[in-house]
Amino acid sequence: MGERKGQNLYYPPDYDPKAGGLNKWQGTHALRERARKIHLGILIIRFEMPYNIWCDGCKNHIGMGVRYNAEKKKVGMYYSTPVYQFRMKCHLCDNHFEIKTDPQNLDYEIVSGARRQENRWDPKQNEQIVPETNEVQRKLFDDAMYKLEHGAKDTQAAEEAKPVLGRLFQRNDSVWRDDFEANSRLRAQFRTRKKELKLQEEKDKALLGRSSLAIALLPECDHDRRMAQLMRLHSSKTVHEKDKERRSAILNRPVLPSTASNKSATVTKQVAGTKLETKALGIVKRSATSSSGLQPGGLSEHGPDEKRPKDTTAEETKSPRADEVTKRPQLLLCNYGSGSSDSD
Question: Which of 23, 130, 213, 290 could form a disulfide with 286, with the two C-beta atoms 3.0–4.6 Å apart?
Fold first, then answer.
């Protein structure tokens, strides 16, 4: 474009070369609208934001690299280096902010209208090359002994950094010798990690759906697993204690609650700790032949008013404690496992 403009200049018929250049003869500037304030020492340039800032007008964030049409003017000198100041308008509001150069610190300084987002650190912590200060440079120029000591320290630092630099070169050579292989390996790791994250996300969604929760779940760790194991709910009683209580409840429960009287219940409580025998309880074991005399309704051949014959053997073997228990109604114990009882 510049060449075509130079070749396609139009010179009107009344142009006088003695007046100077074509722009001077027409009364215009070569930069056109960018130089509309050139008489004030201001030139319109395209300025790029050197770092992140916050606008004081709208309180919005303006990122590094955003470009503006700025008014550039010279405000001072730092030795032989000019100091320029730039004034521009925020693209989100009507606020104007001004930034000037800082040649002493190799940086930019905000004059007004904005504040800097602090992302600075000490370059010595990252082992970066830091330029010498004015005092050190003055001592290097004036003091030969200090210059010799400073050079010895630099040489020692270079010798200490050689092994580290050598390992870095070897690692880069081994890893990035084949760019395609390294890229394929990194992409494979990325795909594997992506699948793991997707699977974990599905598990988290299922867990939140079952729990009816709407919270963000953090990834598990060993500390969480140990704490979850320590917080298990344990019963206040052991298995043996529960079995002992169950046995005592069975022993204290009456055999036939419907036929037992209040007196028999008290007797059962008294002899709960002793072993009760079937003869002491008045239960007579009948054989299969004798049990065949029972009627289908569960009644024997004797009538309801007839009394059963007494068992002399049971009366002879009664103990003094069993005398009280014999007051219970006598029961019949039938063996239904034989063939004769099955036919009934």
Answer: 290
